[in-house]
Amino acid sequence: MTALSWPERIKALPVDTRGFPVPWFAAWADGKPDFRCVAAGKLEQAVRRSLCWVCGQPLGRFKTFVTGPLCAINGVSAEPPSHKECGEFSAKACPFLSKPRMRRNEKDLLDSSPHPAGQMIDRNPGVALLWTTLAYQAVPVADGLLFRVGKPQTLQWFAEGRQAQRAEVLSSLEGGLSLLRAEAEQEGPPALKELELFPVR
After folding, report:
1. Closest CA to 147 of 135, 165, 164, 130
2. Among the listed residues 57, 177, 79, 61, the one whose alpha carbon sits nearest the alpha carbon of residue 130
3. Residue 180 to residue 144: CA distance in whole angstroms
4. How far is CA 113 from the centre of its chain?
5. What is the pLDDT of residues 95-142, one digit of tens each?
6. Please, which contacts does 120-123 make with residues 24 or more away whose CB atoms are closer than 8 Å?
């Protein structure tokens, strides 16, 4: 973490025992943060007050979604936006986003933590997309909120904490689409129609 420059907003966050900044959205239990879990009410606060998902400070004109590569196809994210510099920091520093072989750790998750809405593919996509826009729409769904992102001002792709190569992006897109299509085909035509409505993380 020492080699990566921390934006000022990130410096204002609490730090865990390993020296990692704790994102604003993270849930806490017994005085310890759980980066995998979202604290109750944080999603609603971020939307209502237009707060950065990572640092918790007010957003400006531009909103950056840190999402999976298939957002480039369906235009939907499961998480609200961040400042661009906070999103870039996350793409470079977050172990799951910056290490393609990193798997999700589901052990001892907090029962009280809300689960992200939408259809989730249980894999590490290998690349992260930063979609910066001027506007977005929060869409209520049965299991929470999804975010329909507006027209992109910029798109940035990251892999292993650096700018992703075209081949890495295409490989991730193909893999994700294949898994999602296979699941939808098993469920039938209605599920295939819903593909464009659900985010892939």
Report:
1. 135
2. 79
3. 20
4. 16
5. 877 665 544 455 555 555 555 555 555 556 789 999 999 999 999 988
6. 120/78, 120/200, 120/201, 121/68, 121/176, 121/179, 121/180, 121/200, 121/201, 123/175, 123/176, 123/179
